[in-house]
Amino acid sequence: MQLQRHIGSRELLAFYISSVVGAGVLIIPGIAAQIAGPASVVAWGLLALITAPVAVCFAKMAMLAPESGGVPAFIEKSLHPRLGKTLSLLLTLSIVVSDPIMGLAAAHYLHSLLHFDRQWIPLVGYIFLLAALGFNAMGMKIGGKIQSAAVFILVAGLIAVVAIALPQGSAHTMTPFMPQGFGSIGSAMVVCFFAFLGWENVSSIAGEVRDPERTFRRVIPWAVLIVSGLYGLIALTYVSVVPASERATAPTVLTPILRIAVGEQAAAVGSVVAIVLLLLAVNSWVMGASRQIFSLARKGLLPSALGRWSAPQGAPRNALAVLAVIYGVFTLCLTFFHIPEEGLIQFANANFIVIYLFAFGAALKVFRSARMRACAWVAILASAALVPLLGTMVLVSLGIAAVLFIGLAWRESHLARRPSSADALPRLR
Question: What is the mean pLDDT of each run of 10 residues along the chain (429 residues)?
Fold first, then answer.
């Protein structure tokens, strides 16, 4: 089935921004500052340096394999079909785990605004996920235009926040600069890396982009500039305006910045802006997850019903319905087992790092120009440098990938031994 290509430059840029910006701007700087203090800005700076080559590599992969399978589809074509399917399953798992973190981030901001009982935060996060699922069910033709307008308005709002608050920052607030020692920068980088995830998410909608080669080339420089600028400015504003005592109490970012710089009423407005931006981020990641499930179903790895496309709306509605159930189960697990958000971030990071390493390895095999190969080398070396920081989580991710790979090999062998329908017919004498 041929997907409708109705995503233009404006919608693609909005999808890039909302995929990468969200928790990265609104809550991760707070978590990173709790780990490394003001020195967390060093972690943000180091990771921002690799944003451009990583984004360019993923954009090129989307041009070469413009379909709903995203990065794993590129790996499947360029390295090994079974490996690509394995990483597609791993990527789907990673996105499904990552999406509730976005919902939780929005719930944290709503809690800071309404001060409801903290035990309801997981449920509120799930409600945000349901809202994103409903928005996705509208399809990109309608929802994409609404999301584009909202993203650009909210980016302008974030720039206004920086312009108002950063001049009120002080060196005193950033002293001591490295309270937890030099090693804390590495630990903060692991958390900050989660904020830069999303470049690969855009590959999952490449099959719906008009003229992928031209559109991706046109959009990617602007996406890198806007995303990197927002990260750096918000992180710097947070550690220079908000005192250490307040940074230690909660990871939310916009609310304390505006309360200190402008006043309590502005802080409430900041929380509302943060909630809307996070809802847009959740919407983008839910869209990526639904496309991955749709692609896996089309390849026969999931029930065929999940590979049905609702043509009038332009959305995989069955995949979205299954995600609603999965997110509900995950919310129950968060509620009853008290799974820490930091642990979920590290688990998702490890899975993404493994996928990144294979993807950039495939890029080195396929890319021919010296510039693109240089980008792939920068991306693969930067990703490899984060492996020691993730520790045993990488081994867990590799173990899951190995189990999936072996399972797919067994499935292929089992299907090969199954008699064909023609052979199964009784012979007439």
Answer: 68 84 76 83 83 87 77 86 90 83 79 81 88 80 71 83 83 80 79 77 76 86 87 87 76 78 74 78 82 85 83 76 89 77 78 90 90 91 83 90 92 75 48
| pTM of the shown model | 0.81
Secondary structure of 12-38 as H, E, C letters: HHHHHHHHHCCHHHHCHHHHHHHHHHH
Contact (CB, 8 A) for 88 and 74 = no
Nearest to 165 by CA among 102, 92, 256: 256
The tokens describing 379, both together, are 């991306």
pLDDT of residue 360: 92
255 phi and psi, to 5 degrees? -60, -55
Residue 262 has which token pair?
Answer: 């402008």
Per-residue confidence (pLDDT) for residue 282, from 0 to 100: 82
Beta-sheet strands, E only, within 46-107: none
- Cβ-in-10-Å burial (0-12, 13-18, 19+) of 234 comes to buried
DSSP codes of every residue in 98-131: HHHHHHHHHHHHHHHHH---GGGHHHHHHHHHHH
Question: Tokens standing for 142?
Answer: 């309608």
205-224 residues labelled b (16+ CB within 10 A) or e (exposed): bbbbbeebeebbeebbeebb
- Judge residue 75's burial from the number of C-beta atoms within 10 Å of its C-beta, 0-12 exposed, 13-18 middle, 19 or more buried: buried
Q: How far apart are CA 63 and CA 90, in angstroms?
A: 22
